[in-house]
From TrEMBL:
GTP-binding listed as a keyword: no
NCBIfam families tied to this protein: PRK10917.1-2, PRK10917.1-3, PRK10917.2-2, recG
Keywords, ordered alphabetically: ATP-binding, DNA damage, DNA recombination, DNA repair, DNA-binding, Helicase, Hydrolase, Isomerase, Nucleotide-binding
Organism of provenance: Rhizobium esperanzae
Gene3D superfamilies assigned to the protein according to its UniProt record, in alphabetical order: Nucleic acid-binding proteins, P-loop containing nucleotide triphosphate hydrolases
Protein name: ATP-dependent DNA helicase RecG
Domain Helicase ATP-binding: 288-449
Domain Helicase C-terminal: 475-627
InterPro entries xref list: ATP-dep_DNA_helicase_RecG, DEAD/DEAH_box_helicase_dom, Helicase_ATP-bd, Helicase_C-like, NA-bd_OB-fold, P-loop_NTPase, RecG/Mfd, RecG_dom3_C
Function: Plays a critical role in recombination and DNA repair. Helps process Holliday junction intermediates to mature products by catalyzing branch migration. Has replication fork regression activity, unwinds stalled or blocked replication forks to make a HJ that can be resolved. Has a DNA unwinding activity characteristic of a DNA helicase with 3'-5' polarity.
E.C. number(s) listed in UniProt: 5.6.2.4
GO biological process assignments: DNA recombination; DNA repair
GO MF term (any one): ATP binding
Assigned protein family: Belongs to the helicase family. RecG subfamily.
Length: 701
């Protein structure tokens, strides 16, 4: 149960003064809430200002610098009302102080209101931006107009918040001002020595300081209030991960004793030998699974490093112990492809393999479910469908989750909530910087594939302006005549699947008209069977050029494809470009990646393309990506809508993440059920940051 002390923070924002249904809708949008009911006061309080307006500058009219926000106290001389019917002429009010003259400009100004606010001869204080033109100072729509004797009431330093269309800064500020006093005193969960050493204010003070900045330094990520909130956020995250892990580990893993009966047959059938990275990773996995604790391991390896085979060897080990293994892929295509690859190798060991996705329907589905329930199915490959209610496993011992570069902590929680507790192997493609691994997974065990399979040639990457597309098409013609295979990737058109599709179809049509009919097309709107057919045709060589939208981004494996053309490369993020490029260079032929870009390139676009040209090192690319884009996108949170961080930033607060990680481990060790007084305070923290899913696991025991 949520501590009662938090009730005022968890009441809906619609209960705040000044928040009607319309504003409530805007807040839902602004704060990214799911529904108006789920939009709570605390969510509003986490909405942090990113800058501030300083109105303390009171230079006098003549000394007010162009474009500056200033506060001026002056006497009203006269009003100039626009002529009747000329609504495009503004209403002007003239003022003066000892230094000079100022014109206040109001478009569509209401005469009655202005006469009341700015009576002739009155001394007033106005605040806003100064604009100099032809030696005259003016201020368009001052932010504030008050009587001079009330100047004290002006907010001299004002926070500036991210807004959404239709919500004015003043309205938002009023609502936040109304929400702030609701923040209760709370028991402290941070160790006194840490608050003292780091100079951290209490949680309540931190929220006040967050919304009432006095100085630009208060907006800085390193401001004490922000550091406190960042630490708390990391601590909540690390604690909830630890609690989940503690719970996962409590359910004893069933040890898998590899006999080699299955794996040796597969090994014999392989046309290559494993890299030493692959061997190491397999050894680590087998060791984990042989113990009584459940395995929770992350397998990191750049695209093409051969993760699938490592997973297959792990699956072989549980099958040798009489268990089942699932492999969950993020997309249908990828699931089908894993199925094709794994079937090929597993056939040598005579294993029962099934594929189960949302597309599997009717009779076929029934039969597959039966084979899963009876244990006849030993390896089951699929999408989320694998964990639907209707699927019952005979003896699930290992779940492999192929997440590529998207994390899904939530999926793992769902799995556990279902009461399934197999060993877990999570595969991710882009080598993720350690700080991100920590933040997203906590202290997960990590295996890394650091080398590529032998014989891989480097991919030559070139950038070419779109004006030279014709030349590239010419080169493709001769490459295809030489028996090569190429991908042509069309970009995502912002927020429009329709246009996205059109651009791919159009490109397909122009390429067909210049290169001939044997060109495939694959995009997100196609049905599953159609996609499979297009992929197969390309794999078999019936088509030698495949025009695609980003559906081929993840994991698709056609080892003899050696040319990758990416159209409008400037529209892609680095991680995505790296993933796409990773589709080639998978065999022993030299490969080329052509980045077609439309100039002029912005600074970031330029930086991205240069990095792509410079390096194939996924680790370096991931770090550069982090610098260029911020961690949210890299974590995939922006696409999938899973909650990321509200205040904490991995770039600014990495030191705090380290501390939080250690503190969380210490706290959980001392008080695993969070029952002590400090433990109770910690529960409050978890609710405050909405990391309370983990508390369920405590009660479930
Ligand atoms: P990823 O890590 O991107 O998932 P895959 O598992 O799809 O990579 O492997 C990429 C390609 O490399 C596949 O065609 C796979 O069969 C091949 N491969 C895997 N391991 C080796 C190896 N040790 N030597 C040669 N080729 C390998
Ligand atoms: Mg893969």
């Amino acid at each position: 149960m949520r501590p009662a002390i938090l009730d005022p923070l968890f009441s809906p924002v619609s209960g705040l003064p000044g928040v009607g249904p319309k504003i409530a809708e805007l807040l839902v949008k602004l704060l990214g809430c799911e529904t108006p009911e789920d939009c709570r006061v605390i969510d509003l309080l986490f909405h942090a200002p990113f800058s501030l307006i300083d109105r303390r500058n009171q230079p006098g009219i003549a000394q007010a610098p162009q474009g500056a926000i200033v506060t001026i106290t002056a006497r009203v001389d006269r009003h100039q009302v626009p002529p009747r019917g000329k609504s495009n002429v503004p209403y002007r009010v003239f003022l003066h102080d000892d230094t000079g003259e100022l014109t206040l400009v109001f478009f569509r100004g209401q005469a009655a209101w202005l006469e009341k606010q700015l009576p002739i001869d009155a001394e007033v204080t106005v605040s806003g931006m100064i604009d100099w033109f032809n030696g005259r100072a003016s201020m368009v729509h001052p932010d504030y107009i008050v009587k001079a004797e009330e100047a004290e009431s002006l907010p001299l330093v004002e926070p500036i918040y991210p807004l959404t269309a239709g919500l004015s800064p003043k309205t938002l500020r009023k609502i936040i001002d109304a929400a702030l006093p609701r923040f209760p005193e709370m028991p402290e969960w941070i160790d006194l020595t840490l608050t003292q050493k780091q100079g951290l204010p209490s949680i309540r003070d931190s929220f006040h300081m967050l919304h009432e900045p006095r100085d630009p330094a208060d907006i800085d990520p390193q401001a004490p209030a922000r550091r406190r909130l960042a630490y708390d956020e990391f601590l909540a995250g690390q604690l909830s991960l630890s609690l989940v892990r503690q719970r996962l580990r409590k359910v004893a893993g069933r040890p898998a004793h590899a006999t080699g009966a299955v794996s040796s047959k597969i090994m014999k059938a392989l046309p290559f030998s494993l890299t030493s990275s692959q061997n190491d990773a397999i050894a680590e996995i087998l060791k984990d699974m042989a113990g009584h604790e459940r395995m929770l391991r992350l397998l990191q390896g750049d695209v093409g490093s051969g993760k699938t085979l490592v997973a297959l060897m792990a699956m072989a080990a549980v099958i040798e112990s009489g268990g089942q293994a699932v492999l969950m892929a993020p997309t249908e295509i990828l699931a089908r492809q894993h199925h094709a690859t794994i079937s090929k190798f597993a056939a040598f060991a005579g294993l029962g393999i099934e594929v189960l996705t949302g597309r599997t329907k009717g009779r076929e589905r029934e039969e597959i479910l039966e084979r899963i329930a009876s244990g006849a199915a030993q390896i089951i490959i699929g999408t989320h469908a694998l964990f639907q209610e209707s699927v019952t496993y005979a003896n699930l011992m290992l779940a492999v989750v192929d997440e590529q570069h998207r994390f899904g902590v939530h999926q793992r929680l769902r799995l556990t909530a279902k009461g399934i507790s197999p060993h877990m192997l999570v595969m991710t493609a882009t080598p993720i910087p350690r700080t991100l691994v920590l933040a997203a997974f906590g202290d997960m065990d990590v295996s890394k594939l650091t080398e590529k399979p032998a014989g891989r040639k480097p991919i030559q990457t070139i950038t070419v302006p779109m004006e030279r597309t014709g030349e590239i098409v010419g080169r493709l013609r001769s490459a295809i005549a030489d028996g090569k295979k190429a991908y042509w990737i069309c970009p995502l058109v912002e927020e429009s699947e329709e246009l996205d599709l059109m651009s791919a179809e159009e490109r397909h049509a122009t390429l067909v008209s210049s290169l001939g009919p044997d060109i495939g097309l694959i995009h997100g709107r196609m049905g599953g069977a159609e996609k499979d057919a297009a992929m197969m045709a390309f794999k078999n060589g019936e088509t030698r050029l495949l025009v695609a939208t980003t559906v081929v981004e993840v994991g698709v494996d056609v080892p003899d494809a050696t040319i990758m053309v990416i159209e409008h490369a400037e529209r892609f993020g680095l991680a995505q470009l790296h993933q796409l490029r990773g589709r080639v260079g998978r065999g022993d032929e030299a490969s080329t990646c052509i980045l077609l870009y439309k100039g002029p390139l912005g600074e970031t676009g330029h930086a991205r393309l240069s990095i792509m040209r410079e390096t194939e090192d996924g680790f370096r690319i991931a770090e550069e990506d982090l610098k260029l884009r911020g961690e949210g996108e890299l974590l995939g949170t922006r696409q999938s809508g899973t909650p990321g961080f509200r205040i904490a930033s991995l770039e600014a607060h990495a030191d705090l993440l380290e501390i939080a990680r250690k503190d969380a481990a210490y706290l959980i060790e001392r008080d695993p059920e969070l029952t002590s007084e400090r433990g109770q305070a910690i529960r409050t923290l978890l609710y405050l940051f909405r990391r309370d899913e983990a508390i369920r696991f405590l009660r479930a025991g």
